[in-house]
Structure formats: C-alpha cells, structure tokens
Amino acid sequence: MKLESVRVEQFKQFRKPFLLNGLSNGINVISGPNEAGKSTLVRAIRAAFFERHRSKSAEDLRPWGDSSAAPAIELVFHHNGQNWQLNKSFLQRKRCDLSIQGTTYSGEEAEEKLAQLLGYQFPKKGASKEEHWGIPGLLWVEQGSGQNIEQAVVHAGDHLQSALNSLVSEVASEGGDGLIHTVRQQLGELLTAGGAPRGEYKQLLADELPGQQELDVLKGRIDQYQNQVDRLAKVAREFHKIDREQPWIKVRQALAEAQECYRHIESLQGQQQTLNQALISVQQRAALLQRNKQQVQADGKQLQQREQEHNTAQQALNDVQASAAGLHAALEQCQSQYRDALEVERQAGLLETRQRLDHSSVRAKTQLQQLSERKSRAVELQQALGESRMLTARHQISIAAVDQLRTTQRQLDDTRLRSQAIATRIEWQLEAGQQIELGQDTLPHQGEQLLLSSTRLRIAGVGEFTITPGGDDLARCQRQLEQLQLGLGEQLMTLGVADLAAAEQTLVAQERAQADVHRLLELLQSLVPGGLASLDSDSQALNAELERNYAEKKALAPATTLAQGLPAQAQAQDLRSNAENRLSAAEKRSSEHEKALLAASHRYQNADHEWRTLRTSLNSEQRQQEVIQLDSDLTAVEQEQARQQERLTEMLAQIAAARPELVQQDIQRLGASADQLEQAQRGRELELKELRARLEIWGAEGLEGQRGRCQAELEQNRRRCQQLQRRAEALELLLELLTEKRQALTQRLQAPLQRHLNHYVTVLFPDAQLEVDSQLLPGRFTRNGETGQMAELSFGAREQMGLISRLAYADLLKEAGKPTLIILDDSLVHSDSGRLDSMKRILFDAAQRHQILLFTCHPDNWLDMGSETINLEALKARALL
Amino acid sequence: MPRFLHTADWQIGRYFNRFDTDNSSALADARYGAIERLAQLAVEHNCDAVLVAGDVFDAQAVSDRCIRRTFNATSGFKGPWVMLPGNHDAALAESVWTRARRINAVPNNVHLALQSGVIELPQQKIAVLAAPLTQRHTYDDLTAPFDSISTPPQWLRVGLAHGSVQGVLAEDIDATNPIAADRSASAALDYLALGDWHGLKQINERTWYSGTPEPERFRNNQPGFALLVTVSEPGALPEVEALETARYHWHQWQEKLVVETDIDELLKRLDELPESSVLDLKLEGSITLADEQRLADALSRAEARYRSVTYDRSRLLLAPTEEDLAGLQASGYVGDVLEQLQTRQSGAEAQTARDALAILANLLLEAREEKHP
C-alpha cells in the first residue's frame, strides 16, 4: 500500500485546503514545529478510516468556532496495483465516497470496504476507540504510546490471526477459542482453578461423610437394637426357668434349721452366765475374809512397832538430860571473860583522851606566836604603802596632756624652722666704727639676722631702711607661730610645769610611785589575806581553845588511877568484841539444849501412852475369839469357790462343742443366698420390663426404615457425585486436548513472527533475543545471559522494542499480502543517540518494504534517512501563495 | 371344596436404592397395592383363607405406619389370613409382630403364626402347620415336627414354611433355613406353601413357592404371582393356578448395537413397552452421532413414560460418520481434538474420552444452532 496524497479542508487548524502530496515509497520524514499541524494530519488519516461519516462524535474535527464547517479529507493511495481514492466529509456535509480503479462505492459500503482492506472495525456507536482500530492500531503509533504494544496486539488479535492463518498450512479453528472458553467455564462450575471440587460437586462430596456417618450411627443402633432383642430373649428364658424352680425355698428351709440350732446354744450361754455370776460373788466374799485376816496380822506387827518406839524415846530423853551440866559451866566462864574485857576497854579510852588534849594545847600556843609575828610585819608594810600613795598624789599628771604638749611643741618647732627658711636673711659686716640700728636694736658689727616682719634699718648717717620680707607664706607662718606659742603657754600653765622636759620628768616619777603602791598592796594581801582584823580574831579563837583544853584535862581522872600497860583503845575494843561473841554462842547452845530436852520428854510420853493402849486392846478376850472365827470362815469360802469354778468350766466346754460361730455363719450365708436368689429374679423381671420398654421406644422409631432411606439418599448422592466426577474428568480431558492443539497451532504461527523479530532485535542488541509468547506478544527478553520480561525494561528500551515488534508484525502482514502503512508520530524521542542510530538502520531497513510516514518536530534527528524532509510550514506557506 | 391363596415375600418396607427418590417411593408403595390385589383376588375366587409364607416385612424395625398400612391393606378380604414370620421378620422376643400387636394393628381375622404348631381354622376345616422362624437364621429343618403333628381328621392339612428346599434351588442360595424336599410326603401334607424364593416355582405336586406378588429386582424368575390352590378333599392332589399380581414389570436389557438396524430395532422395542415398566438398559457397541441423538430422544421419552428407566451407555462408543463431522463444522484444531477423542474411546480412559467426545459434539451442535438457527 502506498499513500500518494492527503488533502484536508475545513479540518481543525486547516481552514483552507491543504495538500500533502508527493509521498515516496519508503520513509517520509514530515517535520514541523509544535502546532504546525503534524498531529492534525495524523488525526485526519485516522478519521478518514476509523470514523463513520455519519458519526456525531466528529465535533473535534471542526475548525475552532466554525459551526458551519464540513471537515473534509481526501486520501489517494495504491494497493495491489489498484488506485484508491477516498473522499470523506463530516458534520455539515456527511459523505463518504470511495473509488477503486474507477469503481465507486459510497456511504457505509465504502467504509466496510476500507475496514476489510486494512483490518479494523467501526464502533457500534460513538467515537472510534482503541479496541476498534485493529491492525492500524498496531502500525499507526500515536505520540507517546509506542511502548504499549500488548493492548494493540490484543485488539488486532482476530485480524492478525486471520491474516496470519494464510501463512501457515494448518487451518485455525473457527470459534476454537470460544469453545475453550465454554469448556473452561463449564469445568469451572465443577472444579476450582486449583482443581478442587466446588459448588454442588463439593457439597455432594462434603455430604457423603455425614451421610455415611448417619448411616453408620443407624447401623450401630440397629445392631444395638438386635442385641437388645437377643438379650430380651435370653433374660426371658432365664426368668421363666427360675420362676418355675424357685430355688430360694430350699435355702430358706436350711436357714430355719440353723436358726433353731443357734437358739439352743443361746440357752446354754444363759446358764453359763448365771454360773459366772455365782462364782463372782463367792470370790468377792473370800476376798473380804482374806482382807480381815491380813488386818489381824497387821495389828500384831503394830504393837511390836509401838513398843520399840517407846524404848527409843526413853533413851533419847536420857541422853539430852546428861549433857546439861557441861553446857552450864561453859556459859558462866564466858560471862566472866566478857566483863573483864569491858573494863579494860573503858580505861584505854580515858588514857587516849588525855593525850589528845595535851597535843591540842601545844599546837595552839605555836600558832599564837606565829600570828603575832605576822601582825608586826603587816604594820610595817601598811606604813610603806601610805608613803607610796602620798608620792603618787604629788606627781599627778595626765599622760594625754603630756602627749598633747609634745605634739604642740613639735608643731611649734616645725613652724619656727619653716619661718626661718622663708624669712629675709640679713648678713652684715660693719666697718669699724659704723653703727646700724635694726628696729630698736643696735647691731653688732658682724652677724646675721632673719627678718620676719617689716623692720626699720637705720644706718646712722645714712638714713632709714624699711625692710619688708615678701610673700603671704611668711605672714601666715608668723600667725601660726604666734598661735602655737600661745597654745603651748596655756598647756604648760595647765600642767604646772615650766617646759616639756619638766612634764616628762613628772610623768616618769608618777609611774614609778604607782608601781610601788601596786607591789606593796600585793605583799600585804599575801601576808594577811583577811586583813589585820582577821589576825586578831584568829588569836582570840586560839586562846579560847587553850582555856577549854585546860578545863577538860582538869576534869579527867588523874593519870595515877589508871592501870599500867593498858592496850590501845582499838585493841581493847577487839578483845571485848571477841568475848561478847563467845558469850552469845554459849547462850544459844544453852537455849537449844533446853528446847531439845522439852521435845524428847514429849515424845517419850506419847510413845508410852500409845504402846500401853494398844497392848490392852489386843490382849482382850473378845478379840482372841474373833480371830479364830475368821480362820474357819475363810476355809469354807475357798472350798465353795473351787466347786463353782469346776461347774463353769464344764459349761464352757459344752458351748464350744456346739460351734456357735459356724452356726451363725450358716445363718448369714443361707439368708444372703435366699435374698440374692430372689433379688436376681426380681432383677431379671426389672430388666425384662426395661428391655421391653426400650425396645418399644426404639421399635417405634422404625430404625431399619430410616436406614433404608438414609442408604438410598447416600447412594443417590454417590451416583450424582460419580456423574459429576465423570463430567469433570471429561471436561478436563477436553480442555487439555483443546489447549494442547491450540498451543501447537500458535507455535506454528509464532515461528515467522519470531523470525522477523529476530531480524530487527539483533540490529539493536547483537546477542539479544525477544521471544514471542502464546498470545503472539513479545514477552521474554534475553540479553547477555540475563532474562526478563519486556515490561521490565526502561521506557526508552520498551519504546524501541515496541517499534521493532510493530515492524515485525508489518513484515508478517506484508508476507500475507495485507496492506501495510506505518505512521510514527514523534517516535523514539526517548532514545539516546547510539540507540537512535541503530533504530534508524532498522527503520531504513523496514522502509525497503513498507511506506513509513514519520512525523517529527526534530527534523535534525532525521536528516540522514536518505530522503528529503517534507517541511509542513513551507508547504503551508506555498499553499497560501 | 377348600380353596386358598398362597403368597409370600411381600417385603414391606423395602427401599430401592438404585432409583431416584420418586421412583423408589412409587415402587415401595406398589407393595401395599399388591396386598390389596391379593385381598381382591381372594374375594373374587371365593378363597377360604390367604396363607402368607414368610417375609411379610422386609425388616423388624420398620415404622409403625408401615405396619398399619400392611394390615389395613388386607381389609378387602374378611376371611382368615395366616401370616408366618420369615428370616426378615423372624418371631424374636421383640419383633415387628409383637409391635404390631402392641399397637393393635392386627385385625381379628389375621392369624399370626408366631410359634411352631398348628393354626386351626375350624370353619374352613383347614389345619395350618406353621414352621415360623424364631431366630434370624437356623440350620435345622423347622418343618421336621410336621411329621409328628396330628390334626383333626377330615381337615385339610396344609404346611406353611419359609426357607430353602434342599437340593433344588441354585447353589448360591443361602444354605440356612433348610427344608426337606419330601416334607409334604413325610408329613402327609395336602399342600406345602413355601416362601423365600422370590419367583414362582413348583417343587413337587404338593410343594410350591409362590414368589413375591410384586417384583422388586430384575432377576427374571417369574415374580409377580400368587397361587390359587384348590384341594377337592383331604388327600386329593391340589389344583394350583398362578394369578398375576404384579403392578410393575421389571425389564433388564443388554443390547449390542452393531449394524444400523440394531438401533431401529431397539427404539421400536423401547416404544412398545407397557407404561408400568421398570427398565434397565445396558448398551454396548458403537453409534453414530445422529443415532446417538435419536437414542437420547427415545430414552428421554421413555423416562417420561415409564415408571423408571436407567441405562448404562459406558460401553457404547461414539462413532461419528463423515457426515456427522461435516455437520459439526469442527474446523482446525477442534477437528483434531474430535478425531483424537474418537480414537481414545477404546483406550485406557475410554469412558472419559467418550464423555468428552459427547460434550464436545454437543457444544459444537449448540454452536451450529446458534449460528444457523
């Protein structure tokens, strides 16, 4: 197919007629800046083919604001050696005319011819959309959609398929895909995508287990029911047999016999009881007599004991009485010793008092002497103190005043020195005989003088000079000097001294006198702390003491009356204390003996009385007879006891021989047996009732009927299940075969496409491979050993691959004799220069077989395509001319 | 002239698992209908009594409704009925019989022979020597005591038993509940009425199996009859007449379709059956698509018309002809698949292949219908 020219009028921006002609066979680069009308031309070609001339949705074709326009397109092209011309106008003038080699078609017929030729569809209503575009959708690439090839291939599917079918010898199935779809859908009703049962099939399978379980439960219950029926038969048989035999009657008879036997044993046991009691009473009497006898024997022993006690007491009394004389003598000796020691102690005390008084008198006399000496010394000191105090009073002067004086003196001296320094000095040396008077004074012939104030100098025969010393300072100094001299005079007068030296002297004398007063005061204080008066009172006290001692000594007995060699008072006290202790001990012993004697005497009297009383009682006549009677009674009772014992033993032997415990066990055993037999029978009766009642209930349920129904349902379910399974298997097989065959066919279709694809891909990437999948889509991409899907490539690479794929499809269509026109609107703008070069080679190669219209706004990129670039701007300009 | 009706094996309460619910309950209901017809026949033929030789009930634990319906169905004949427990309804300690009595379902004119011994029908002068099963299975000949049982003189002496006559029935029949073949002679019976074998069968001049009055399986051994027995006087040979009682007729056909006319023949027969038929069809051979369509139509018609139609086509191959294939318009790879399935019908998964082929053919036909309505 070769497009010769495109002519538009009243079409979008082309309000005036515009003609694009002179298109060549191979590649045609049509350039122009943005808005120059490239896309409008592409739209015009698309509208000419895709939009029905009657379409109401062609509004966008109208020039802006021109509601009366009738957008018109005229296309001229060659195909299969025939000339085709299409004239189509929209909106205000809806027309479509197609002339093929002179034959004219119009309206829808013309449109269908075109659709058939190029392989696309018209929409049922509304604007034409991507899904209607078919093969042109694949080969006419819109701006910016070159990479999206999947949808384009899908939309082109049927047209491609039928176009390609002619290439392979096999005839593809008509409606085969629909069939596969139906089979898959029907299978999907039975099985999930994973092959698991679903829907009714799944439900049936799920129901089988509960159904089977219900059936099993029913079967179990029926078994149970039948077992119970068998049990009923067995129990009923046993019941009737036992009911006839009544085995417990015989057992009850044996029981009655055993009970009779036991009653006999019980009467024997009663007799034994009586015997037992009689024996016990005899034994009790014997024991009583025995106790009496023991009492008699005890009485005898007691008499002996009392006699012995009587003797012992008498002996003890005698012993105590014997020791009385010794104790008395010892007491008297102790008393005499004590009195002696007491006298010695008194005399020793007197002696010691006398000696103490003598000592005291001596000491007092000595102290009196000392006091007198101290008094005379103190008087001397007192005198000296008086003198010193006098001296102090005489040299009284203030230290502060002296200090003041010193300061004034110093200031005066300083001022004087200063006045002399600034005073006017007059030195002179008079010639002999000359006389000068200065002030009132006549000056010697040689000397110097300082002038402090205006002074008149009169030189005899010469005249008078008044010399006035200059400056304020001298005058002020002079005033100060006068003030200070005045102050000094006042201070000296106050102090009563002639000058500063006298004042200083007076101050030294005052300080020395004060030190003496201080020292004397301290001496006096140490000598008589209490003052002189205290010394007098001390001597009075000592004299009083001496008088008291004297009087006391006089009162004492004279020394001659005292014994010679007296011990010291302390020793005498010790001796007296020892004697006193000894006396106390002797007194205590004597008193204790006194008490012992009294007790022994008491004991003896008691023992004697008891012994005598008992002896009288035991030896009485009545008592002797009682003892004899007791012995005879005792003998009789012991005989009776032996007799009773014998009878009892005999009775016990008789009872033991009858084996009461065995008889009792018999009674128990037989009684229990009879009860058990009857109870077992009652149990059977009860079980029969229960079994009948239970079976009655169970029977009413119609268990076997239920089982029949349940089984029927289960089997029906299973049959249905099998049918569904068979159907699922059949559908699976069918689907498998259909897809398998389709696959094989697709593979045969893939081969030529793959071949063309490889042709281009290797130009771009020498070692790469782009595989065609079962949907005839470019899919797996392999490069440098790495594999991925085309969709995973970069945008630029995908655009290049998309274009390559489209070219491959075009080659395939060409081989199938289909028209191929390739339109690229600003393609490959995302390619780098290296890739773009490769793509140019590819495009140039494709252009050898197909007409390619390449619209671009970058004409510089496409200068090397071996063809003249058609400049839209230039064309438009020419059209205006 | 004493005359009675001999029947057996009513099998009330049986379920028919192989059929769908609808047919199953109709067939179960038909068994009550059979009792009503027996009563009617007894009246029509002036019978003195109806003797039922065991297996009145199919199971012990049937519902109360079953029991009542059974006895209600006898109401048409007011004369005595003697019912004997068989192996399915043995007279156990607790049985369908004790229950029937407990719920007061047994009419006065129905005698239950629950114990071995004689049931006397004085009015009819018939002594029925009964050998009921009191256990589910027994290995003793329960009719042995008949030899020593005496009955009033000048009364008819009729034995009633349920079991297998020794050495007469097929080997595979259960060997339990044996009955001596010469019992009628040894016990001097006028007639021995037997049950257990579901088909009509004569053992000797005086010994018969009546079979079940209403067929319940496809085994073709003459089910669906009752025996009208007339004995002119005690000791005389009985006159036995088979009366048909079946409501439904069970047919099982095994057909091999080889030549074209086979299918025509089959379809003709299929159309000619009486409406009360229960049909089971097993097909083998091969069939063209066109004939397959005819067969399907015929079966569909039969299903609507007859009581029950079941069929097994799993061994019938689909053999589409050139015409068939052209008609299917299976082009391209679909045609391939069709061909492959056709050959696979005789392979390992023949069944699946056959089903798949049928599905495919149907889909293609539907597609064709859509295209060219």
From TrEMBL, chain A:
Residues 585-594 have a biased composition (Basic and acidic residues). This is GTP-binding protein. Keywords: Coiled coil. It holds the Pfam family AAA_27. The keyword Coiled coil applies. Residues 279-323, 634-748 form a coiled coil. Residues 1-53 form the YhaN AAA domain. SUPFAM superfamilies: P-loop containing nucleoside triphosphate hydrolases (SSF52540). Residues 567-594 are annotated as: Disordered.
Automatic annotation (TrEMBL), chain B:
Residues 3-97 form the Calcineurin-like phosphoesterase domain. The keyword Nuclease applies. GO terms for molecular function: exonuclease activity. InterPro entries: Calcineurin-like_PHP, DNA_Repair-Maintenance_Comp, Metallo-depent_PP-like, Mre11_N, UCP033093_metalloPase. It holds the Pfam family Metallophos. Keywords: Exonuclease, Hydrolase, Nuclease. PANTHER family: COMPONENT OF ATP-DEPENDENT DSDNA EXONUCLEASE, NUCLEASE SBCCD SUBUNIT D. This is Metallophosphatase.
